[in-house]
Each structure stands twice: as structure tokens, then as C-alpha cells.
Design brief:
Radius of gyration: 23 Å
Number of helices: 17
CATH class of one domain: Alpha Beta
Helix content: 25-40%
Strand order of the largest sheet: 2-8-7-6-5-3-4
GO molecular function, one term: lyase activity
Strand content: 5-15%
Organism: Saccharothrix australiensis
Bound molecules: pyridoxal-5'-phosphate
CATH superfamily of one domain: Type I PLP-dependent aspartate aminotransferase-like (Major domain)
Keywords: Lyase, Pyridoxal phosphate, Signal
Pfam families: Aminotran_5 (PF00266)
Distance between the termini: 72 Å
Order of helices and strands: HHHEHHHEHEHEHEHEEEHHHHHEEHEEEH
Largest sheet: 7 strands, mixed
Protein name: Selenocysteine lyase/cysteine desulfurase
Oligomer: single chain
Number of strands: 13
């Protein structure tokens, strides 16, 4: 059988030798594209425990301590802040190293990654991998450096007419709000900031749906929301909101259609959902939080008709002569990038998929539910995130009356527990549980919070 261009290149470059140069297959839908990862990775990089045992046994049980051992998190601390910026698991570190070595050995490799035929194009591999995870199509995805830049590209690019408005909520991150404000400041649109609920602890699906319905006017060109909100830990029912937007769009012309833009950074990698089927028109997320992807990576996914509603903002290296309609290729910020990070995203996707998106989500949920029940049962603690699983995910916001959010974080840090703060209009101490955590971590932080209340 003829050797593929990609394999020929790797072998010629001396980067695949002996057994490593033999073809291998992987079990994921990105098998062909991700094959190089499996081939070139050093032993111990695959999702197995340090002893070589698989992370998931034949009956589907996950060895969570083996999962944790894939990370270099300091063992003398409890890390309940993994949502801040990803620690890289072993397969991601190995892939970053492999790509760095490739480019150090032969920088011209990057030309092939960018412009080579599809069998060697790293972009193809990257998008196929993300599409498999999101349940979308590769051509619907624009890899971007992070959520913030993705949101900026979307709102700056959105075709709006004077008199139209962009609606965003006070629960959204300032990156989202400012992306909207900066786009509107160019004179095309007005901004309206709304509120979908008053009290996060008692929020209901009907309440957010009704408030959104009331907020959309015929002038509303986009609604920006956050799937899992870092301000409160509330998970919005995106499919329900999508129905509200769809009803408001009935009878509207394409140029008047209201687009639902979702900041999904705290749901991607934490929730078991096909993002492309949530009902959003545009979904923006970093892959460097819950997905544990390389730092400085993210994506914009949009439906094909939504891509056509955007204009390119930065020169793309994937389509040098853009013509209408706009495609995802046009939104990918061009220039040479930190390719060892960008192209290592499939290793993170692969890691998640091998554990199982459903198992990752169940683990995140189980630990968070334990945490929230414990906080709710602690007299003197105010829990702001809903107990309902439908309206919460891996983030939990709470308060210890008498202590401000910095004091809570500082006092826990003294006890070697790392948490963060939700730096919003109303700031709260915030905890996040994920696949790097054990139930002992949850019990430990609960015990320390109870100590704080008593002191
Ligand atoms: C809800 C939300 N959106 C966006 C961001 C910014 O993410 P990124 O670093 O991917 O730009 C954050 C940061 O923590 C966030 O919490």
C-alpha cells in the first residue's frame, strides 16, 4: 500500500522510526486523523494508569485515581479551581512535545500543516476531532485562541443594521459583555443588558424562558447567554432558550433574524451534550478549561446559515481570497501560531472520549452534587447555585456571611485548598469539581468551610 504523504513526511523527517512508524488505529471517530498522536506518543502517554492499567475497565468503571495521576497537579493541595485554566494531562503534554519536536526539527513542516493536501493538514485533523466531540461538522468549526477572542470575532463580524440591538445579560462574563459593547460602539447597534433571574438559588426554567421571551424585540439581532455561568454556577437550559428565540424569529427575514450566541466555556468538557444540537446558532468556547486542552485554544462553532451572517474580521490563512458567503475558514485568525498547542487539541478530545463524555459529566455532577448538598446542609453558609441538576453543572458559588470572597479564598488557601472568586457585580467564592477531584477533596473543603463558619 502506498505510504500517505503525511507518513512519508514524518518518516523522512526521521520522526517516526521502527515500530513507531507502523500503522496503528485508534477507537475514536477521529481515528485516522488522530493516528499520529497514537503513533508518536511516548509510552505511558496513552490513557492508562501509571501501572499500565487502562483508565476504564472492561465493565466501564473508571479508575479515577489513575485519571488524576495523568495530571501534574501539586499533590499537597486540594484543587477545586480546575475551570480556571487547564492543567495538561499526560497525553496533551506528550502531543505538545511531539509537535514542538517536529517543528524544531523542521520548521517548514508548518507549511504542510497549513496548506498541504488534506491528508497532512493538521487543521483537518483538528476540526474533525472537535466536530466528533461537538456532534457537528468540521467545516462548521473555527479554531480560535480562546473564548474571549471567539466572542469578539463573532460580534465584530455580525452583520447588523443601525437600529438593531444586541442583547446580553448581566450574568455573562465581562469578556462577553465587552465583546458586545465594542461591536456596538462601531455604530451599528445598540446594547441592552438584561437579567434572566433575580435569585440564582431559586431560578427556574420557566423564569429564564419567560424573561428571555419578554426581552426579545423585533430589533434584537443577537441574544448572548452563558451556558454554565461563572457568576453564579447556574446552567441555562439552552434548548429551551433556543425555542424562545426560534419563536421570536417566526416570519423574520434572514437579515433580521435574532441569533442565539452561547458562551459555552464552562459546559464544554463538563456536560454530556452534543453542542451542535443544543439549538444555539453560534457556540463559543475555550478548550483550555474543562476539556483540559492546551492553554490558548478554543473554538467557534456555528450553523452554516449563521456563518453567512458574519463578516471576517482578521485575515485568515485558510482562505486568502474570501468570497461570500462567509465560512468558518474566514473567521480563523491567521498568521503563524503556537502550533504545538493548537494542533494538540485532538489529544485532549481523545483523552476525554476514551474516558467517556458521559462518565466525565457524571463524575463532575456527582462531586458537585455532594458539594452543594454539603453546603446547603451547613448552617451559616449561603448557597447561591441551584441544587437542581438541570440548572447546575460543575461550578458552585456560595457565601460565608461576615467574610468577603477574598477572605474565604485566602483562608482556604492557608489550608492548602485552591478556589477562585467569581469577579462579578456581586462577587462570590467559587468552587469547581472535575475529573481531577476525589470525593475526599469535596469533604475536605466542606470541613474547612464549616470551620470558617464556626471561627
Ligand atoms: C463565562 C466565561 N466566559 C469567558 C471566559 C474567558 O475565557 P477564555 O480564557 O477562554 O477567553 C471566562 C473566564 O474564566 C468565563 O468564566
Amino acid at each position: 500500500m502506498a505510504m500517505s504523504n503525511r507518513r512519508r513526511f514524518l518518516v523522512n523527517a526521521g520522526l517516526l522510526t521502527g515500530a513507531a512508524a507502523l500503522p496503528t488505529t485508534t477507537a475514536t471517530t477521529t481515528a485516522t486523523a488522530a493516528g499520529a498522536t497514537a503513533r508518536a506518543a511516548p509510552p505511558g502517554d496513552a490513557p492508562t494508569s501509571p501501572s499500565g492499567q487502562p483508565l476504564v475497565d472492561a465493565s466501564g468503571r473508571v479508575d479515577w485515581s489513575a485519571v488524576r495521576a495523568q495530571f501534574r497537579l501539586a499533590p499537597d493541595r486540594v484543587h477545586l479551581n480546575a475551570f480556571l485554566l487547564s492543567p495538561h494531562p499526560a497525553p496533551v503534554r506528550a502531543e505538545i512535545d511531539r509537535l514542538r519536536r517536529l517543528m524544531d526539527a523542521d520548521p517548514s513542516w508548518v507549511q504542510r500543516a497549513y496548506w498541504g493536501d488534506p491528508s497532512v493538514k493538521e487543521w483537518v485533523r483538528l476540526r474533525a476531532s472537535l466536530a466528533g466531540y461537538l456532534g457537528g461538522r468540521p467545516e462548521e468549526i473555527a479554531p480560535v485562541p480562546n473564548t474571549t477572542i471567539g466572542l469578539a470575532l463573532v460580534y465584530q463580524g455580525l452583520r447588523v443594521r443601525p437600529g438593531q440591538e444586541l442583547f446580553v445579560t448581566e450574568h455573562d462574563h465581562f469578556a462577553h459583555q465587552n465583546a458586545v459593547r465594542l461591536a456596538a460602539a462601531r455604530g451599528d447597534a445598540e446594547v441592552r443588558v438584561g437579567r434572566l433571574y433575580d435569585d440564582p438559588a431559586t431560578v427556574s426554567v420557566d423564569e429564564v424562558a419567560e424573561r428571555l421571551r419578554a426581552a426579545i424585540t423585533p430589533r434584537t439581532r443577537a441574544v448572548g447567554v452563558t451556558w454554565v455561568q461563572s457568576s453564579t454556577g447556574v446552567k441555562l437550559p439552552v434548548p429551551v432558550l433556543a425555542e424562545v428565540v426560534a419563536r421570536a424569529n417566526a416570519g423574520r427575514a434572514e437579515a433580521d433574524r435574532c441569533l442565539l450566541v452561547v458562551d459555552g466555556v464552562h459546559g464544554l468538557g463538563a456536560e454530556d451534550a452534543d453542542v451542535a444540537a443544543l439549538g444555539a446558532d453560534i457556540f463559543v468556547s475555550g478548550t483550555h478549561k474543562w476539556l483540559f486542552g492546551p492553554r490558548g485554544t478554543g473554538l467557534v462553532w456555528a450553523r452554516p446559515d449563521a456563518w453567512a451572517q458574519l463578516r471576517p474580521v482578521t485575515p485568515s490563512f485558510l482562505r486568502r481570497d474570501p468570497v461570500e458567503p462567509t465560512t468558518a475558514d474566514d473567521l480563523v485568525p491567521g498568521g503563524f501560531l503556537a502550533f504545538e498547542h493548537v494542533f494538540a487539541v485532538p489529544a485532549a478530545v481523545d483523552f476525554h472520549r476514551r474516558i467517556g463524555r458521559d462518565r466525565v459529566a457524571a463524575r463532575t455532577r456527582e462531586l458537585s452534587a455532594r458539594l452543594r448538598r454539603g453546603l446547603a446542609d451547613t448552617p451559616g453558609v449561603v448557597l447561591h447555585t441551584p441544587l437542581s441538576e438541570r440548572l447546575s453543572s460543575g461550578l458552585t458559588c456560595f457565601e460565608v456571611p461576615g467574610l468577603d470572597h477574598h477572605e474565604v479564598a485566602d483562608r482556604l488557601a492557608e489550608r492548602r485548598i485552591r478556589i477562585t472568586n467569581a469577579q462579578y457585580r456581586v462577587p462570590y467564592p467559587r468552587l469547581g469539581t472535575g475529573i481531577t477531584n476525589r470525593s475526599e477533596d469535596v469533604d475536605r473543603v466542606l470541613a474547612e468551610i464549616r470551620r470558617l463558619v464556626r471561627s
